[in-house]
């Protein structure tokens, strides 16, 4: 098969330099976890940013970093502090991210950020063009690189280009707010195949294409003069067996081989038949609805006081985009809310919320997924949410309940979860009670359906469907040109 190169803002590993030693740290986030499992199948390179500013790197260190990354089939795009500030923190995370997640009040409209976005997208496109050889295909990912498809297509019209958006595409009425809306659409239309997690995002995108550009769209094909572009939805899956096997293995270990986290949980009687654990895992991001979740947990303890002392919320928030103002404010708000709930309902031997603001190793993640009775997933907007799927895969005994926001893309595939509106505190509080008293038979019935579905459409299936569609679009275009 032809090689497929991946292009995304962040590489699957970040570089960390400690005492002149280069360490590779796995990147957090759905794109990285998902693609990490599949990209080696395509024999191509992964082109992206290694996560640190290039200003302080001398030639020798840059060479060593590149060597280390080549061993992982990764090709770095180096970004300076200024580029990180204006393109990554700036246009990507202060303009597009809030716009696409319907946080219009947070959007920064700044021409300087836009200019940096264009020039850094060109940098990624140039690196991809340098890497391309005859017959190779390119698969570009996510909102930070919306202009790259067109930048590649304009230089190499014969290369097949795929693009997948990992976040929601907003409704036209929201998208039109942006001064650079046409340029973004134009950039995406450089791809031959454009993929979204859900049909709704696809529909919103097509509506923007029609209304802003006036192009004709029939079924899921966009017709532009001499080209046909395919648009489709591909709900991203997870590496199901990896989570299931890790969970099985961890629980077979004797106590002395269990991790410190697990032993701590047991020591504080958190893993015991008389205690229930609720799990919350996200990047610290305002789209994830973390404050809503804490308010709902507080309301739950107020409305169902029989659970005080018996239920603990384990909340893992992974630091993310910590130099952007809204993320700094969010962290402060969450810290305060955790303090408020613990102050109100806690006692010497009861801490209602166990809060971790850090990244945890994969093993601990699995322990949390498999030890917690309920997963509370309440984003106010989320393209997909892989955490919900990972929880399902890790439940080897098929018990456990998911409370899931209707605003997450994953809700479309998880009708057996308890579906809530993330802005309805009372509804979430009642859902927590419902989850905690749900009979085991009902839990198993719901969970088995979820497991069958999530297992069937895993990340390998997802990527192979996308690649199949790329081949299909090549064929459609060839027959179109032949006419
Ligand atoms: P997003 O992509 O917006 O961050 P997702 O829920 O889709 O949200 O994906 C988050 C991914 O990050 C999951 O695959 C999850 O396993 C991973 N992750 C979350 N927390 C951690 C952590 N503490 N350490 C390692 N990986 C994590
Ligand atoms: C989401 C985005 C990814 C991004 C990830 C982590 O999953 O869709 O593109 O990589 O968040 O965010 P970060 O800004 O740290 O790369």
From TrEMBL:
<protein>
    <submittedName>
        <fullName>Bifunctional alpha,alpha-trehalose-phosphate synthase (UDP-forming)/trehalose-phosphatase</fullName>
    </submittedName>
</protein>
<dbReference type="GO" id="GO:0005992">
    <property type="term" value="P:trehalose biosynthetic process"/>
</dbReference>
<dbReference type="GO" id="GO:0003825">
    <property type="term" value="F:alpha,alpha-trehalose-phosphate synthase (UDP-forming) activity"/>
</dbReference>
<dbReference type="GO" id="GO:0004805">
    <property type="term" value="F:trehalose-phosphatase activity"/>
</dbReference>
<dbReference type="GO" id="GO:0005829">
    <property type="term" value="C:cytosol"/>
</dbReference>
<comment type="similarity">
    <text>In the C-terminal section; belongs to the trehalose phosphatase family.</text>
</comment>
<comment type="similarity">
    <text>Belongs to the glycosyltransferase 20 family.</text>
</comment>
